User: Fold this.
Amino acid sequence: MIPIIRIQDIADILIMTFLLYQLYSWFRGTRAIQVLLGLGIVTLIYFATRFLNLYMTSWVLQELGTVLIILIIVVFQTEIRQALYRFSLLRHILDTRQETRHSQFQDIAETIFRMAAKKTGALIVFQGNESLQDLMTNGVVINSEISPQMLESIFYDGAPFHDGAALINDGRIEKAACHLPLSINPDVPQHLGTRHRAALGLSERSDAVIIAISEERGEVALVSAGTFQLIKTPTELILTLDGLLRNETESPRVTLRHRIFSNMLPKASLLLAVCVFWVLITTRQGQITTVAVPLRLHGVPDSIVLLRSVPEEVTVQIKAMSSLTPPASKLDLTADIDASKITEGTSILRVNHGDITAPSGMIITSVSPSSVRVTAEKKMRKRVPIKATIKGRLTIGKSSLHIICEPDSVDIEGPASQVSSILSLATEDIDAGQLKIGKEYRKNLRVPEKQISVLLDTPVTITLSSRSRSK
Assistant:
């Protein structure tokens, strides 16, 4: 039965849909989105196997899920870091990047078309609001003013920096010979080479604007947000760069209606998927299960010995908030109660909900009884002699011999009322007919009460000797 939908549930669904759509928008066309789709299918299979009670398959998928999460973090660490950066609300406040000036675009545009006329291949990256530190690798720091001579020397055929990309940031040429991530979009035209594929790959992962000059065709292409645009004139390039790289406060304002109703197919698909998952997760919401939970006392003072607790277990009612929670028969719960304040005699300890750790997705609703009666006594330690227990009678000639125990005494510890009444401890039975002079026999001690502890780690050694041990 589908639970009653609350306003909080609607907000929950919309928030998760928004987050998933943001991830889809950022990773669309990259290998990350393909992996995410694959994980979504595996997750659906996992839910299906759980509801169909396919224990082996669901267990295997659950174990693989833990490994896959680690692999995803390792393989897609750059994409994850970039996504977290985009989520940051402080990046616009902390970003001190100055707006590129229109006059710089003029020099850059003229230089670019001059190189295109000579069919000099080039790859120039204009950094946007997002950092490119993790996406552009192996670059050489230049940090020079933008000038036609510098740009032409960087991309001069045969120069050391010719095959890499130049990064322009804060109105300066920051780096050269940088390597960019390649796009794996299968729809990229075959005639485009590695330079254009690298420009597309960087634009898919950031808000950077990239200019690629083809050395085969002498064309100038502007790449941003995963799209190509052929530029015909320097004026067109200046206007395009000015529109893309201007300060955000001057950017064209997108209406709320356009934000909501644009690109409806992926939005509706994600909304439907989130609703399905919400139904699966909340199917058992509100189901209450009653289980018996044993008590465990911790923090007992060293000077106190616990004699008994009544009751020894409590009845707990647990409310399931999701269908993903384990059934009651598989719960392994313990009421862990603090007994550090108990004293000699009888004490009453409260059993609180916080003393029982419920699995994720489950809530403790009631505990009965709500208190436990604990009887404790002062702890006492005492040293008592050890006596060997002989079963049968010693034969003639052995009756005058002495039975020696090693050790001859031992420390015991426990409740004072029990320890004070113990005068000695006996060993396990020894057959008198098998005793031989000088032979050693090892026997354990008999403990009279279960609350008594014997402070001896090894068995007692018993020997039949012709004379008693000297004191």
